[in-house]
Amino acid sequence: MKPKVALITLNACLLLILGAVTLGPSARAQAVRSRGQYLMVGGKYVLNQAGVAYILDQSNQELVSLSWNDGSKNLFGVGYKSISKLTEQNQKTR
Fold this sequence. Notes:
Blueprint lengths: L2 H21 L4 H5 L5 E7 L6 E7 L4 E8 L4 E9 H11 L1
Antiparallel strand pairs: 1-2, 2-3, 3-4
């Protein structure tokens, strides 16, 4: 096969793949999750007295707590709570 014909065939295949990806359905998570509005508060973690940042996503009603590790120089997750699920559970128990 001539290099020119092979290159044209390859480009046509890549164009078809690009069209399929572009025109295909979008990911489900993109349509479901709304844009967040965040509130961050600093505090102390009870077990080891390390500093913790509590981050509340008001739009999606989620709470995440993060702490800084000086040894590895990065953040690690301490906990996660879904505020909407907690609210539903509290309403069922009443």
